[in-house]
């Protein structure tokens, strides 16, 4: 019997209701959700495993002297963590892109320039042999304009 894969975040309200099923997802979505959690988690943030996460948050406000070196370090960090914490994938590659994007806070209207980091992760799903891709996007290093 195949294990059920649940949507993140968990719907705790549904969990407490008798007879109510939690929303489930397919294998590819489950893997993508886990990779997003890895990339968006700072080291030492996960209570039960200090190594779960990504180095990107250690470098959030760092001045990027060499984008190639910075991207290489982040690529290696993500690759290491995906290899360790996402055993459902094999042949994983990571290619990080950095772009600047203007962002306006919805409630305050304050404009800022943020670095948008896209972590393009590719691999093969071991159980099915299917090609897998996901590209979690994160905003880092705000610079306020107003």
Q: How is this structure best described in words?
A:
The protein has a single domain, classed as Nuclear Transport Factor 2, Chain: A, CATH 3.10.450.40. It contains three helices and four strands; from the N terminus they run H-H-H-E-E-E-E. It has helices spanning 12-16, 27-40, 67-85; strands at 89-104, 111-125, 131-134, 137-144. Strands 1, 2, 3 and 4 form a four-stranded antiparallel beta sheet that branches. A hairpin with a 6-residue loop joins strand 1 and strand 2 (111-125). The longest helix has 19 residues, at 67-85.
Cα shape? globular
Structurally, the number of domains stands at: 1
Largest β-sheet summary: 4 strands, antiparallel
| Structural Rg | 18 Å
Q: Span between N and C termini?
A: 56 Å
- Assembly type: single chain
Order of helices and strands: HHHEEEE
Class based on secondary structure composition and strand pairing: alpha+beta
CATH topology term: Nuclear Transport Factor 2, Chain: A
Low-confidence stretches: none
Helices, by number, come to 3
Let me know the number of strands.
4
Task: Give the % helix.
Answer: 25-40%
The pLDDT mean sits at: 85
Which CATH class? Alpha Beta
Any idea what the CATH architecture is?
Roll
Q: What fraction strand? A: 25-35%
């Amino acid at each position: 019997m195949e294990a059920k894969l649940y949507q993140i975040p968990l719907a705790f309200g549904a969990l407490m209701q008798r007879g109510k099923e939690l929303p489930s997802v397919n294998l590819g979505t489950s893997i993508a959700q886990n990779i997003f959690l890895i990339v968006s988690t700072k080291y030492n943030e996960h209570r039960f495993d200090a190594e779960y996460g990504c180095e990107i948050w250690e470098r959030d406000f760092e001045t990027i002297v060499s984008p190639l070196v910075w991207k290489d370090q982040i690529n290696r960090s993500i690759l290491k963590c995906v290899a360790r914490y996402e055993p459902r994938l094999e042949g994983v590659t990571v290619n990080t892109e950095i772009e600047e994007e203007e962002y306006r806070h919805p409630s305050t209207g304050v404009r800022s320039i943020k670095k948008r980091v896209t972590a393009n992760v590719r691999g093969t799903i071991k159980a099915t042999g299917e090609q897998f891709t996901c590209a979690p996007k994160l905003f880092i290093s705000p610079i306020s304009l107003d």
